[in-house]
Structure formats: structure tokens, C-alpha cells
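TICKET: design request
STATUS: open
ATTACHED STRUCTURE:
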């Protein structure tokens, strides 16, 4: 009431707006204030506010929003990229994906769907494409499949997918094309000949430098590398084709060259270097030495990959830093080490130099130098130009093997002849050295090192080996510290006890092997391998061929002299499996007399399959007829006659005492999946092996 009276008394003094405002204020302030909150209510409100609600968290909202945006971008960009590649790169105007194209076409379409390139998307080369000199762009690799049948449209060769997978690891894309041979061959009739002849389009012959129709009939595909070099592949040339696409390592600065040398510091890895700035307009303009260097890399570097690195220096100043003053020089470089230092000869001298903190030594290949070749063939050079001398004479069909042989011999000497001692650090190179020495029927002192490698111990070994080398200059000294080295050379390992303390460096295995001579295990008579080419000598030893082994001598670290021939044999008391007797060349003849049939398990120490067979050997023995049959084991490295024809482990041999014959038990499975299934089911594996052995006994 008081509020109303006050409003009426003062209303005549106020404007309408002021009256309204005054009335609102009176209404607002006349309300009762809320009661004060208690401590309990305030505590409950505080607890409610501190509860975490992930729905209201702005950070999670931002993460979900960003993920949704990223998903939309990836999906749309992927579809757009696929459409653009299909339309403008592969030439498919429909832009239809392979999944959609083969959808609902049965199981036969699944294999087609897995292919990364559809056969309809691979364009065919035309004469117009080959007339364009810039068609094969630099920095790209090309695979051109030759289609011989004019009516067919075959799918791409599996070789393409293999090369594409390998080249993808090197970040080098591979582009596919097809070349229909009938588009470039024109039939021509001659008046003198009844049968029509065929002429090749000059554009095709000029583009690939092959003008013979019969040669084109044999070509499967052509590979073009990033330098524009073209290589026809006639049969399965996967390794060479991959190397052709890979190319040697290119280095253009000292830092990268230092890193390449420094990563193999302390090893005997060799580096073959040449200067190739890459300024030539076409591969035909490369120097003779650069072509020979590439030829060796493409054909042989796969076997030397772990031991020899191929490098092309594209900077002339960097090349001059290591002695490559011209593009016709090839040099071999290695980090200096005492185990395999370079030794000089009359034609090639050894140079030592430093690159930052690395001590290096190098040897130049003088036989392929331009001035040396011109001097050697001076009488031919008078009647031809320099280009004809290189292209038609030195690289012609009659002279190419001789010219290429100069570089091959230099690299062979760098790896095998020039080093005073051969130090193998990888299994691949150890196999390479073994095959090389055996093929050339050479003598080798094989030494397997073990223990710590101290400077003092290394010095003592080098002194002994140097003295041995002076007395036996025709013997190669092969050093290695690989654990599997003995088995690679078919040598049984010595039974050395392992201790917690690392022993000083010593010879774990020391054998002198003569790959040019054989020894008779019965009579100890030495026979030259070359003498077996004589029919009379071969007929004389025909009965003892099973007892002929490569001549080996057991040597010691203290006494590097030849004693009597050594035959490999495991220790007769060694029983790897309880209850199963171990045989060797000393006791096998007596043990085989005990029962009518003897089953021999042939095993190897590092054989994966033997690890599955060995645990079930006692069970196999229990299921055999104990009265007539016995089961024994033998290491495959034992030099016994009945192991001559064993080419895999594990194997089972059956010896018939009455007939004196050995029969190989058939344990082959039809597929790899069947073999894996047997390895998983031990009981089934035992049943299969026992049944196979019993079948062999019946047939014998």
C-alpha cells in the first residue's frame, strides 16, 4: 500500500518512461532475498561441479572433430586420386575400379582383381611414341612387354609385378607398356623368293637398337632404366633386370662418400668407383669404361653385394679427391686393415690416402684405361675413328668378351688375388670363395677364428700366416669368424667347451684343403683330379669312387705343416639322443652287422627339420621290429661312403645286411602345407615315418 501511494504522489512529476522504470525497480526490490545456503548445500554443489563429464569436455570434442575431418579428406582424396590415375595415367575413360569391374564374376576373377594393373589399362606403344625422343623420360623406369600374337591381349608378365615390388623398395616407380610386334613388322614379297619375307619398322630398330626380326621373336620384354638404357630380356632374367633398374649408388659430395666408407670401417669390404657425371645426352655417349662398369654391375654384382660396393661419382671434384682424374679410370678402394691388405704387382701399384680420419688404400685398373687400350690395339686404330674403335671394335661381338675380361680380372684380383689373406665376414661371400677355389682346383688354408680379437694376438697370427705364405705362395689363406663356416666347407666342428671367460683368439678349425687332388680313404693313395679325365685311370679307380675325398690335412696353430690326410668324423661316444647310437666312419661297419636291417637318420646340427624329427626318434625306434631292425643316427658331415648321394636333411637310409645295399626312404610330402601339418601333429608324423620305413624294408 505504501509503495502504491508513493508511486501516485510522485507520478505527476515523472515522465511516462520514468514512471515505468520506477515501478519496475519497486517490484524488484520488494522481493524477499533467498535464504542463505548451508555448508552442506555448498559442499554438495562443489562435488557436483568437480565431477568429470566427457560429453562436455571440449578437448574430446576437438579430437573427434579433427578425426572426422581427416577421415573425410582421406576418403575423398583417395577416390579422386584413383579416378585421375585411371583416367589420365592408365587411359581408362570409365574410371571404374578393379573391384567394381570384376564384382560378381566368380573365383576366376579374384586372381585378376589382385593384380595392381589391369591388362586393359596398359597402353600399347605406337610408332609415334617411339619417334618421340623424350618419350622415355629420365628418372623413370619402364617395363615393355612384347606381344607376339597379333590376336591376343595377354595379361602382364609376373616378372613385372616382381620388379615393381622390388623397385618400390628403392622408391623407383615402374611404368608398364605393351608392344605388339605385328604393328612394327611389314610383310614383303620378293620376286626371287617364293616365301614372303618380313621387314622391321626402322623406328622400332632405331629406338631399341635391335633390327633383326628373329631376335625380336625371342624377346619376352624390355626394361628401360632411369638413365634411358634399354635391356632386352629373353628368358628369366629377374636378378639382372632388377639390378638394371637399381643402378649403382650415385654420390656427389664428400660427406656422403665419407659415410659410405666409414660404415664399413674395420672390415675388408671393397668399393669400386668410377666418375660418371651423367652429362651425356644418351647412354650411347657414355665412355667405354662407364659401359663396362655398368655391364659388370648388372650381371655380377648380385653375387658380390655384401663384399663389394659399386659407386658412381657424379661430381668431378669429389672424384679427383680419391684419384679419379678422368672418366676412363676405375679404382678399387678399401679401409686399411691388417688381415687383408692390398699387395702391389708390376702393373697396378697400391696408393694410400686419408679421407678425414679414415685411412684408405686404392688400386687403379690400368688395363681398361683409354690410352692403354689404344696402345694395345694401335694397328687397328689407324683405319677407324675413335667412336668406331670403341663401339664396333672393342664392344663388338668378336672382342667384347676380351675387353670385358680386363675389368673382370681386375675385380677378381681385387677380391681374391691382391689381398694377402682373404677375410670372409658373410656367409654369401664364404660360399663365393669356396666355389671359386673349388672351380679352379686351388689349395686353401681354411682357418676359423674364435675368441677375443686383441692387437697382440692379431700380430702373432699374422706373423705365422705370413711365414706360411712365404713357404707356400700358391696356397690361399682364408680367414673367417663365422659360426657356420665349418659346415659350409663340410667340416665337423671341434668340440670346444664354452666358458664364461672369453678365451684369447685361437684357431677353432685349421685345415689345408687341396681342391685339385683326391685321396683314397682305404689306401690313402693321392690322385690328381685332372688324372681322372684319363679313361684308364678312371677305370682303375672306378670301384673306389665312393672312397675318394678331397685331400685335407689336419693342422694346428703351432704347426702349420702337412701331416697325413685327414678324414672328417664325429666322436663315436657322442650320443645326442638317449638310447640312440651315433655312428661315424670308424664304427659304422661293425654296428651295421648287428641286425638284418639298419635305419640311419642323417641329420645336421643346424637343420630346422631335424629339430622336429629328433624328439620322436625314440618313439619311432619302439615301433620298429627290434629283432630285425635297429635305428642309429649319423652327422651328414661324416666322410662315409653311404652319405655321398645325400643332398638334404633330415633323411632316412635303410641298410640291408644280407644284400649290402643302401636304400633312401621316401619321406617326401606332396605340399609344404602337408609337411607343416605333420610337424604340428607328432603322432601322425610318427605313423607316417614308421609306415614309410616298413614299406622300404618290404621292397628291399
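STATUS: resolved
RESOLUTION: sequence designed for all positions
ATTACHED SEQUENCE:
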Amino acid at each position: 500500500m505504501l509503495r502504491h501511494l508513493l508511486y501516485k504522489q510522485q507520478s505527476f512529476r515523472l515522465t511516462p518512461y520514468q514512471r515505468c522504470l520506477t515501478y519496475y525497480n519497486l517490484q524488484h526490490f520488494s522481493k524477499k532475498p533467498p535464504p542463505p545456503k548451508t555448508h552442506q548445500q555448498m559442499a554438495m554443489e562443489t562435488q557436483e561441479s568437480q565431477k568429470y563429464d566427457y560429453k562436455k569436455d571440449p578437448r574430446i570434442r576437438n579430437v573427434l572433430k579433427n578425426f572426422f575431418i581427416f577421415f573425410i579428406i582421406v576418403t575423398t582424396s583417395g577416390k579422386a586420386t584413383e579416378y585421375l590415375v585411371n583416367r589420365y595415367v592408365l587411359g581408362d575413360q570409365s574410371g571404374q575400379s578393379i573391384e567394381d569391374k570384376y564384382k560378381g564374376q566368380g573365383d576366376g576373377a579374384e586372381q585378376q582383381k589382385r593384380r595392381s594393373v589391369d591388362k586393359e589399362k596398359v597402353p600399347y606403344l605406337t610408332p609415334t611414341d617411339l619417334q618421340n625422343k623424350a618419350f622415355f623420360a629420365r628418372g623413370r623406369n619402364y617395363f615393355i612387354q612384347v606381344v607376339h600374337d597379333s590376336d591376343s591381349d595377354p595379361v602382364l608378365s609376373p616378372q613385372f609385378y616382381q620388379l615393381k615390388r622390388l623397385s618400390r623398395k628403392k622408391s623407383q616407380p615402374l611404368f608398364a607398356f605393351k608392344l605388339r610386334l605385328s604393328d612394327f613388322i611389314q610383310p614383303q614379297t620378293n620376286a626371287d623368293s617364293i616365301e614372303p619375307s618380313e621387314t622391321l619398322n626402322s623406328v622400332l630398330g632405331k629406338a631399341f637398337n635391335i633390327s633383326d626380326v628373329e631376335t625380336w621373336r625371342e624377346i619376352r620384354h624390355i626394361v628401360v632404366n632411369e638413365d634411358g638404357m634399354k635391356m632386352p630380356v629373353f628368358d628369366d632374367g629377374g636378378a639382372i633386370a632388377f639390378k638394371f633398374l637399381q643402378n649403382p649408388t650415385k654420390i656427389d659430395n664428400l660427406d656422403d662418400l665419407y659415410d659410405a666408407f666409414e660404415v664399413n670401417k674395420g672390415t675388408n669390404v671393397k668399393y669400386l668407383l668410377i666418375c660418371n657425371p651423367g652429362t651425356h645426352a644418351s647412354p650411347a655417349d657414355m665412355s667405354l669404361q662407364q659401359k663396362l662398369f655398368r655391364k659388370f654391375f648388372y650381371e655380377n654384382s648380385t653375387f658380390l653385394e655384401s663384399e663389394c660396393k659399386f659407386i658412381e661419382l657424379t661430381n668431378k671434384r669429389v672424384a679427383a679427391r680419391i684419384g679419379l682424374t678422368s672418366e676412363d679410370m676405375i679404382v678399387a678402394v678399401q679401409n686399411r686393415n691388417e688381415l687383408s691388405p692390398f699387395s702391389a704387382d708390376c702393373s697396378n701399384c697400391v696408393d694410400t690416402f686419408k679421407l678425414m680420419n679414415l685411412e684408405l688404400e686404392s688400386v687403379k685398373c690400368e688395363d681398361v684405361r683409354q690410352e692403354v687400350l689404344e696402345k694395345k690395339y694401335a694397328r687397328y686404330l689407324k683405319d677407324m675413328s675413335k667412336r668406331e674403335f670403341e663401339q664396333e671394335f672393342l664392344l663388338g661381338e668378336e672382342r667384347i668378351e676380351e675387353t670385358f675380361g680386363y675389368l673382370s680380372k681386375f675385380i677378381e684380383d681385387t677380391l681374391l688375388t691382391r689381398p694377402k689373406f682373404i677375410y670372409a665376414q658373410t656367409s654369401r661371400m664364404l660360399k663365393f670363395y669356396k666355389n671359386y677355389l673349388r672351380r679352379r682346383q686351388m689349395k686353401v688354408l681354411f682357418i676359423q677364428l674364435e675368441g677375443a680379437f686383441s692387437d697382440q694376438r692379431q700380430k702373432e697370427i699374422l706373423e705365422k700366416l705370413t711365414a706360411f705364405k712365404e713357404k707356400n705362395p700358391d696356397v690361399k689363406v682364408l680367414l673367417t669368424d663365422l659360426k657356420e663356416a665349418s659346415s659350409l666347407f663340410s667340416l665337423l666342428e671341434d668340440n670346444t667347451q664354452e666358458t664364461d671367460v672369453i678365451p684369447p683368439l685361437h684357431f677353432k678349425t685349421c685345415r689345408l684343403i687341396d681342391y685339385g687332388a683326391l685321396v683314397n680313404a682305404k689306401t690313402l693313395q693321392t690322385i690328381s683330379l685332372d688324372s681322372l679325365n684319363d679313361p684308364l685311370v678312371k677305370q682303375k679307380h672306378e670301384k673306389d669312387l665312393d672312397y675318394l675325398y678331397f685331400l685335407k690335412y689336419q693342422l694346428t696353430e703351432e704347426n702349420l705343416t702337412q701331416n697325413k690326410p685327414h678324414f672328417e668324423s664325429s666322436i663315436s661316444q657322442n650320443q645326442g639322443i638317449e638310447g640312440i647310437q651315433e655312428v661315424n666312419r670308424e664304427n659304422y661297419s661293425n654296428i651295421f652287422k648287428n641286425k638284418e636291417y639298419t635305419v640311419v637318420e642323417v641329420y645336421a646340427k643346424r637343420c630346422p627339420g631335424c629339430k622336429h624329427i629328433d624328439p620322436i626318434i625314440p618313439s619311432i625306434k619302439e615301433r620298429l621290429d627290434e629283432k630285425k631292425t635297429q635305428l642309429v643316427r649319423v652327422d651328414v658331415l661324416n666322410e662315409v661312403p653311404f652319405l655321398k648321394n645325400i643332398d638334404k636333411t633330415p633323411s632316412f637310409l635303410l641298410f640291408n645286411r644280407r644284400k649290402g645295399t643302401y636304400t633312401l626312404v621316401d619321406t617326401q610330402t606332396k605340399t609344404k602345407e602337408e609337411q607343416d601339418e605333420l610337424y604340428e601333429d607328432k603322432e601322425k608324423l610318427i605313423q607316417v615315418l614308421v609306415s614309410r620305413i616298413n614299406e622300404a624294408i618290404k621292397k628291399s
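CLOSING REMARK: Confidence is low (pLDDT under 50) at residues 5-12, 91-99, 101-120, 496-503. The longest strand covers residues 506-520.
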